[in-house]
Each structure stands twice: as C-alpha cells, then as structure tokens.
Design a protein that fits this description.
- Belongs to the ATP-dependent AMP-binding enzyme family.
- This is Acetate--CoA ligase.
- By secondary structure, the chain is of the alpha/beta class.
- It has a domain of 123 residues: ANL, C-terminal domain (GMP Synthetase, Chain A, domain 3), CATH 3.30.300.30.
- Helix content is 32%, strand content 24%.
- It has 19 helices and 30 strands.
- The chain has an 8-stranded mixed beta sheet with strand order 12-11-8-6-7-14-15-23, with helices on both faces. A 7-stranded mixed beta sheet has the order 5-4-17-16-18-19-20, sandwiched between helices. Strands 21-22-24-25 form a 4-stranded antiparallel beta sheet.
- Strand 6, helix 5 and strand 7 form a beta-alpha-beta unit.
- It is globular.
C-alpha cells in the first residue's frame, strides 16, 4: 500500500490540508487502492445528530479478499504471520500468505458447515494463538460478525457479552498458557453457557491437550470441525456499511457497550493508519504486543498489517516470562523492524533493570510505538534510549476502540517527536478542544475536552442493539461533535498531549473500566451495601483502583482481611482479575451531595493522598464522613 504512504513532513501538511478541504476526494483516492467487488455510489453521507454515518455507500467488498487473496500473486510465499509461543523452547509457527489464505478458507467452510451465516454473531474467546487470527478472518470471510472477548474476562462478563450480541457460536480452547501458568478457558465458557440460551455450537481448539468436558451435540473439536473442508472459500459479498465486528468496551455508565465497526471504512482506515504511522516497507517485520481481545490487536495485529501485505508477529506470552528480556529477545530473533507496546509494559520492564535490554542488539528496529494510556516522560525517555537506542522515533498512538484506528500520533520518522505528546492528527482527523460550554478553544497552549468534528472512515457506527446509547454517549455532549471522553492540551506547534479521561473511566494497565461497572461487581457481594471506586496514579499500571466500601455491619479490623478477599472474589467473578481494586477501604458512609450524588472528586483526592486540596465539603449531606475517611485512608 505504498501509494498511500506519506514520505515527508511537507507532504503530511499537504495531505492534511487536502483531507480537510476535500475529505471525499482525499478518501476516495485512498479507497481506490483496495479491491472492491463494486465501487461506491457516494463517498460520504453523515450527520452527528442521530448519528448516521455512511462511508463508501453502495460499495461491495470482502475485507479478507483484501488481506489475503489480493496478496497471493505477489506475496504468496511471503510470511504473513509469525507466531511466537509463550514458552521460548516451544517451536514457533509461521504462515505464508498462501498458507494463511488456505487456513482461513478451510475454517470459513467449517463455520458454514456448523450453520453460521452472514450476519450471525460469533463470539471468540481464545488465547493468543494463530487460530484466533484465523477465526477472526474466517468470520469476516463469510460475513459473520465476530465479537472477540479477551480471555481474561470472567464467565459472567463473557455471558453478558454473548447474550448482548446473541452469539450463535463460540470459538474457544481447552486452556491457555500465560507465563508459567496454565489457565482453563473452556471451563469458563461452560460456566457462561449456563446463563445464556442463544449459543448452539462451541468449537474448541486443543491447545494444551487437556480433554475438557465436551457437551454432546453442542461442542466440537476444531480438528473435527475443519476435517475434509476445502482450501478455497468464495468470500461473501459485503456492503461497505455491513457490520464487520463488535467489540465490547467500558464507558462511564452501565454495562460495557458493543462498539460496531463496518467493513469498508474500517478497512480503509486501519490500512492507511498502519502504513503511515509505521512507514511499513515490503521486507519489514511488524510486531504489536497487544492481545487481540482489545482493539489494538484487531487493528494492528490482524487487519491493518495484513491489509498492507505486512509480516505480523503474534505473541502468546507475557513480557516478563521467562525473564524481563523476552520482548527484546523476540525482536532480535525475528529482526522486528517496527514494534508497538503499552506504557504499562515499558514501565514494568524498566523497573526490572536495564541489564535485560542492554544485552540485546535491537539493531533491526526502525520505529517504536506506544499505545493505550498516557506515557510519562521517564518511561518515554527510557524506551527511546534503551529500546530505540536513541535512533528510533517513538510514535505515541492516541486512539480508542470507538475510533477503530490511530487518530493522533507521530508518523514514523517524518513528524516531530516530543515526549508525552501524541503529536499531530493523522490526515482526515479533525480534533478540537472544547471548553465546558462546548465552545472551540483556539490557539496555542490550551487545554480542553478532546472532540472530533468530522467523520473519518473507521468511526464507530453504533453500539450493538442500542443506537440511542451510542448517540447519548458520544454525540450528545456537544452538538455536532464526537466526544472522546479524554482531556487534552495543544502546544504552540499544534501538537496534542492527551491528559487522560475526564469521565468515570479508569485506565488500568491500558485497560478501560467504568467506575460503575466495578461498583456493580463489588455490590454483588452480600456484605456490601454500597461502594464508590476511583482511580489513582500507579507507578506501573498508570492508574489503579481504590474502592470505598460501605458494609451492612461495620467490619472490625481483624475481619477486614477476610472481607477484602471476599470482595475481590466478587470482582473476579463479575469481571475478571484485571479489574480488582488495589485498595479497599471500609467506610461507614460515602460523601454525597444533598441530591444523593457521590462526590468522586473528594474520593479521588483522598485516594491520591492529597488531603490538603479536598476543597469545600459544606454542600455535603454529611461533611463528617469525609473526616472519617481521611483519617482511615490507606
Ligand atoms: C487504543 C486503545 C481508549 C482510551 C482513550 C485514552 C487512552 C489510548 C493513548 C491514550 C494517552 C495514548 N489512550 N491511547 N491516552 N495516550 N497514546 O487503547 O483503545 O482501550 O478503547 O482505550 O485509552 O484515555 O480514551 P481503548
């Protein structure tokens, strides 16, 4: 996809200006680089009121034809996917484009044989193994809508997502490897399936040889499901605006929402952003360490790289197993040229000492990226110096599940870098800073709510099954703008720095959780009457969770350890280990306004240990509770 690659800063500015003055012309030229079964009647039709956004209206395509078939002639023998197992002693697996194409076709046929049709929802709950990518693409090939659920979510969280999407089939495995541990997966699916009724079939990949319970008539082994199927499968003709996938993400209220992305726009934007931000060249090897359970894995392990004919690395393990040099060892092993990871991983590895990184050459690296949360200056500098050896640009990728692809970021070695600043918007992206009244803030050195005022091809189209929720969450805060939920700052050169969430979303190790979601989980515990959770700064995780909990009876000190364990168990069971609070403080009441609203601002200050700036508490229903909470703060 070299034709759409920006090659200089000057060209970036030109392209950016064009994308604003003539967005339709700009995107049409890029869209022409892809293979369409039928081209569009209209490039863009939109309003942010309903919202109703259509890119490439009337066009027909199949995204996998663009990821696989299209490359066969030129890149049939090129490596498409390199899989690095959890255990470095185990053999790695490689797929050429032809092999991947064949595997996807076989599994597409297998899904069809299980009765999956265009428009059906398929839930994928799997470890980071090649079959996960194959399953994702097979769904896309036959027009089934995939909903990948991160395999660290609990049975309850999985059941909610299956139910919401009304998934008909689940693809899973017996268990998974995670560093030194092996974790059951099928058992979680079985438990989730006790709570839902829509699922007809479960395909199970044998990852660990565990022989889990197989429900007669419902569960089928992957190897049996694919047996005898052809290595060819005609790709389903999809409308550009047909849904491609659903991905659940947390917001400030209620249960996680199913963000819906569509075929045409998502294809164009993930490829465009990948090609540009990472300046991918034909022989490069690209590695993104995310899990495919999150949007970063969707867009920059599977879709973006394969659309661009790249070699993409997929890693099953964790950064610190068998030791803190694992990432660097893998980079040297495959000659990785572009590397993308999260600030939390950088900080964790930084804390393990420089020796682990200094013993690897990392000569192949050209560009290193960071994504998922704000990166602090110290981590940025360490990454640049020790991983990038002072010569690789750090591209800080700001974006969201809802945006589908990278929105604000450095572009390879082309645009300027400034630690902690994500940088300039990509062409086609029109960010603005709004003040509380919703007025655009102009000029340099300003801070405000980050919103986007014009659609780009991979903007979310709806939240599954509840369009009104999409409107209220993203398009109703400020008329005519997409609301990101982030606060940002713009410097004198127009570069953006993302400050963090301004809503009730906590970002723990790059994972998003809503405060309400965690509170609901805590409140399921029978000891608990009510709770309030807030985020506070954590040296490795970015943010950590602090829970203030009111119990039915005051919990004596000697019983607190037990009660804490019980509450943690509730969170593990409702959401998963990834969402457990670091601190739980038992309190007799929460600071509330007279109208009963919890004053999180005060609790945040207490969690941060900043007792001097708690501010005015006189409007509270019972100001005395604050004194008590402060006194016993953890
Ligand atoms: C891609 C992804 C989105 C939220 C987003 C913001 C935070 C992501 C960031 C960043 C600062 C970056 N975020 N990237 N903050 N700098 N480079 O992470 O999607 O899981 O939906 O999270 O993460 O707060 O609003 P998602």
């Amino acid at each position: 996809m070299n034709n759409m690659q920006i090659k200089s800063l000057e060209e970036y500015h030109e392209k950016y200006a064009l994308s604003v003055s003539n967005p339709e012309g700009f995107w049409e030229e890029i869209a022409n680089e892809f293979q369409w079964m039928k081209k569009w009647d209209k490039v863009l039709e939109w309003n942010f009121t309903e919202p109703d956004i259509k890119w490439f209206k009337g066009a027909k395509l199949n995204i996998t034809e663009n990821m696989l078939d299209r490359h066969l002639e030129k890149r049939g023998n090129k490596l498409a996917l390199i899989w690095e197992p959890n255990d470095p002693k185990q053999r790695f697996v490689r797929y050429t484009y032809r092999e991947l194409y064949e595997q996807v076709c076989v599994f597409s046929n297998a899904l069809k044989a299980q009765g999956v049709k265009k428009g059906d929802r398929v839930c994928i709950y799997m470890p980071m193994i090649p079959e996960l990518s194959i399953a994702v693409m097979a769904c896309a090939r036959i027009g089934a809508i995939h909903s990948v659920v991160f395999a660290g979510f609990s049975a309850n969280a999985l059941a909610d997502r299956i139910e919401d999407a009304q998934a008909k089939l689940i693809i899973t495995s017996d268990g998974l490897n995670r560093g030194p541990k092996q974790i059951p997966v099928k058992r979680v699916v079985d438990e989730a399936l006790e709570k839902v009724e829509c699922v007809e079939k479960v395909i199970v990949f044998d990852c660990l040889g565990w022989l889990p319970h197989m429900e007669e008539g419902r569960d089928i082994w992957w190897s049996d499901a694919i047996a005898g199927h052809e290595k060819k499968c005609v790709p389903e003709e999809m409308d550009a605006e047909d849904p491609l996938f659903i991905l659940y993400t947390s917001g400030s209220t209620g249960k996680p929402k199913g963000v819906v992305h569509t075929c045409g726009g998502y294809m164009v934007y993930t490829a465009y952003s990948f090609q540009n931000v990472y300046q991918y060249e034909e022989s490069d090897v690209f590695w993104c360490t995310a899990d495919i359970g999150w949007i970063t894995g969707h867009s920059y392990i599977v879709y973006g790289p394969l659309l661009c004919g790249a070699t993409t690395v997929m890693f099953e393990g964790v950064p610190t197993y068998p030791d803190a040099g694992r990432f660097w060892q893998v980079i040297d092993k495959y000659g990785v040229n572009q590397f993308l990871t999260a600030p939390t991983a950088i900080r964790a590895l930084m804390a393990c000492g420089d020796d682990h990184v200094l013993s690897y050459s990392l000569d192949s690296l050209k560009i290193i990226g960071t994504v998922g949360e704000p990166i602090n200056e110290e981590a940025w500098k360490w990454y640049h110096l020790h991983v990038g050896k002072g010569r690789c640009p750090v591209v800080d990728n700001w974006w969201q599940t809802e945006t589908g692809g990278i929105m604000i970021s450095g572009i390879g070695n082309i645009s300027p870098q400034k630690p902690t600043f994500a940088g300039y918007p990509l062409p086609g992206i029109q960010p603005v800073l709004l003040n509380q009244e919703g007025k655009e803030i102009e000029g340099a050195d300003q801070e405000g709510y980050l919103c986007i005022k014009f659609p780009w091809p991979s903007i979310l189209r709806t939240t599954y099954g509840d369009h009104e929720r999409c409107r209220v969450t993203y398009f109703s805060h400020y008329d005519g703008y997409y609301f990101t939920g982030d606060g940002a700052k713009r410097d004198e050169n127009g570069m953006y720095r993302i400050i963090g969430r301004i809503d009730d979303v906590i970002n723990v190790s790059g994972h998003r959780f809503g405060t309400a979601e965690i509170e609901n989980a805590i409140n399921t515990n029978k000891l608990v009457i009510e709770s309030a959770v807030v985020g506070y700064p954590h040296p490795v995780k970015g943010q950590s969770i602090y829970a203030f909990v009111v119990c039915e009876h005051e919990v004596p000190v000697e019983e607190q350890e037990f009660a804490r364990a019980e509450i943690l168990e509730s969170v593990v069971s409702e959401i998963g280990k990834i969402a457990v609070p670091e601190k739980i403080q038992f309190v007799t009441g929460l600071p509330k306004t007279r109208s009963g609203k919890i004053m999180r601002r005060i609790l945040r200050k207490i969690a941060e240990g900043d007792m001097t700036s708690i501010g005015d508490t006189s409007t509270l229903l019972d100001p005395l509770v604050v004194d008590e909470i402060v006194e016993k703060a953890l």
